[in-house]
Amino acid sequence: MIGHLDAAGLMPATRNSDLYRMRIAESEGVMQIIRNLEKQHGKPFGTSAIFDLDGLSMAQIDMSALKCVTTMLTQLQEMFPDVIRKIFVINTPTFIQVLWGMISPCLAKQTQQKVKILGSDWKLHLKENIGEEVLFE
After folding, report:
1. If you ran DSSP here, which 8-state letter would residue 48 be given?
2. Do residues 95 and 123 lie in contact, with contact meaning Cβ atoms separated by under 8 Å?
3. Could you count the other beta carbons within 10 Å of the beta carbon of residue 92?
4. DSSP H or E stretch at residue 83
């Protein structure tokens, strides 16, 4: 639920390197689960992410946080290539296309193609693409 995140308040409260380490540790934990599933089933697995931007406004956009996020995405992409299968962005405010234009050049073309910015029918798309059984109410 990114729309309710206080990025401007978070950034001075911690070092960027601490945020990077936290995301890398979390990603490595996810990778361990994926590797175990791949061994059990004998086929490649990956992950999908849902970014809920409900409540996000331009006033919340912090350039230092944006730079931190783009750097982190670039690093994670290099460390864990081809892990993300799909990224769904829901409840997007209208200005999000501008942000996407700033962030997308930091991502590989394959990753850009995995991002789906969904409209008001996002629940239907998520049920079809991920499965209702794994979605939160």
Report:
1. E
2. no
3. 20
4. none
Buried b / exposed e over 22-59, threshold 16 CB at 10 Å, is ebeeebeeeeeebeeeeeeeeeeeeebebbbbeebeee
User: Per-residue confidence of the chain (137 residues) as pLDDT tens digits?
Assistant: 566 666 767 777 788 888 888 888 998 999 999 999 999 999 999 888 888 888 888 777 778 877 888 788 788 878 887 788 888 999 988 888 787 888 888 877 877 888 899 888 999 999 998 888 888 77
Q: Report the C-alpha gap between 34 and 10 in whole angstroms.
A: 30
**Phi–psi pair at 88, nearest 5 degrees:** -105, 130
